[in-house]
Amino acid sequence: MKFSEIVYSRPDMDAAKAFYAAAAERMAAAPSFAGAERVFLEAEAYSAKLETMLTVANIRHDIDTRDAFYDAEAAFIDAASPELEEYTNAWDRALLASPFRAEFERRYNRVMFLNTEIGLRTFSPEIVPELQRENALTSEYSKLLAGAQIPFEGRSWTLSQLAPVKQDPDAARRRAAWKAEDAWYAENAARLDAIYGELVGLRTAMGRKLGHENYIPLGYDRMSRNCYGIGEVEAFRAAVREYIVPIAGDIYRTVARRLSCGLPMGYADSAMWYTGGNAAPVGSPEEILAAGGKFYHELSAETAEFIDFMFERELFDVLSRPGKAGGGYCTSLPEYKAPFIFANFNGTSGDVEVITHEAGHAFANYLARDIVPAASQWPSMEACEVHSMSMEFFAEGWAEGFFGADADKFRWQHLADALAFIPYGTLVDHFQHECYAHPGWTPEERNARWLELQGVYMPWLKPEPELGFYASGRAWQRQRHIYMDPFYYIDYCLAQCVSLEFWAMLRTDREAAWGKYMAYARPAGTLTFRELLKQAGLGDPFEPGALRGVAEAAKRWLEGREGA
Ligand SMILES: [Zn+2]
After folding, report:
1. Could you point out which of 36, 124, 137, 377 has its C-alpha 20 to 30 Å from the C-alpha of 94?
2. Ligand 1 mean position, distance from CA 513 (Å)
3. What spacing in Å lies between the alpha carbon of 328 and ligand 1's midpoint?
C-alpha cells in the first residue's frame, strides 16, 4: 500500500466517544485477565485506525494547504480532538484501575502504565481556559515568526530564507543579514516579551491549580519525564559547565584563528566554521535522497529493508512545492505499521539532516512497529533524539556521497557543532527553569538573566551594539521551543551526549557500534530512557563520568585536525 493509495474517510467522532466509554465500562467489569486483555486489544485496534485517519488528513493538509477538502478535515480534527480527550482519558483511567495491572505489565510493559499516570496528572477540566489561551498565544508566536518580511538587498525575506545568508562566507554580506534580522526582531521585541510574560503567567496558574508551587513539576509531567527529575537535570547542567563549555571554548578559539576575528566573537562570526564557507551538500534534492538510499542500504541489513519499505510505499514527502506547509517531521501510521517523513528540501545541509536525522526517527519507529500497545512504539523524547542524532554520526562514513569534496570539512564541522550545541541547549534549559521559578520577573529581569547565563555557557560570544536585539538579552526569543514546548530542549542535550558515545565507538568499531544502536532502539518505549541505555551498555549522561569521557575523546580528535 502506497501512501497515496490510503483511502481517507472522516472518523465518526460520536462513535469514537461511545466506543471509549463502552470500553472503559467493559474494562472495569472484566472478570478475568483474559477478558480485560480482549478489551485492551480491541481498543488498540480501534485507536490505530482512528489515529491513522487523523494523521493521514493532517499530512495531506500539510502537503497542500490550499486543498479545500483536507483544509476542512484538519479544521474538523482540531475542533473535535479536545472533545474526544475526555473519553480517552476515561479509558486510560479504567486501564490504570484494572485489578489485572500486574498481568498487563508482565505481558506488555510497565512503562505504558507509568506514562499514562503521568499523562493523567497533566490535565483537569479546571485548566481548560488556560490551555485555550496558551494555544492562542503559541499560535500567535508561530504566525508572527512565519510572517516575518525582512527587507534585505532590495527585497523581502522570510526568516528561513535569510538563514543561509547568515552563514555567507562574505563577512560583509553575512553581517548585513544578521543586522537585518536583528532589526526585525527588535521591532517585534515588545510583543515577544509580552507573549512570553503571559505564557509564564498562564503556565504558573495551571501548575498551581494542579497542586504545585509553580509550573516546573507540571512542565516535567507534560514532557513525560519518567526516569529523572529536576535534581538530575541540575547535576547534568553542572557537568556541562565543567566538561563541555571549556571544549566548546577551544573549538571557538580554533574558529577565531581561522577567521582572524579574536575572542569573544560576534554572532555573525560564530555562525562560521571555516573562512571559505561551511560544508554544503552537492547535487539536487533527488540526488541527496538517492545518496540517503545508498547509505541505508550499505549500513546494515535492517536499514536496507527499512529504506526499501519507505521508498516502495512512498512514505516521504520532502521536496518543496508551492502551497506546502513549512518545517519537517517524522510521524507514524499505526494501522499500516509505517512511519512517514515530511520535509521541505531547500539545497542546504538541512536536506542531508532530513535523510539522516528524520529517517533515523523513522527507522526506530519501523523497528518497533510490532510492539503492543502502539503508544510504546516511541520512547520519551530524549530517547527518540538518540535514534536520530546518532544516525547522523553513522552517516558520516557516507559523507562523500552527500558533501563531495567537502566531506572532511563536514565531519569536523558536524562534531564541532554537536559539541557546541550542548552548552547552548543547556543554557536554554537553565533559563527556562529560572523564568518559571520567578514568574513575577519583568521582561528586563528575564533578559538580564539570559545575558548573565549566556556569559557562563557561551563565554565566546560578545554582545555587539550593532545587534541591539541580541545585545538586550533577547536572543532566546528566536528559540521556538521556549514558547511552544517548555523544557523540551534538554532532551537534545542528553541525546547529543549519547550520540557522541556512538561517535567515539565509530572511530574504532562500526559493527560493535551498530550492535549497540540496535540493542538501544529495539525495546523502544517499553523501557525508560535510562533503562534503554543501561540494557544496551551505553553511558548514562546523568553520570558525570560519561560526559567527561565523550568530551575528552572528541577534544583529542578535533585537536588533531585543527588546520582544516
Ligand atoms: Zn529529532
Report:
1. 377
2. 20
3. 10
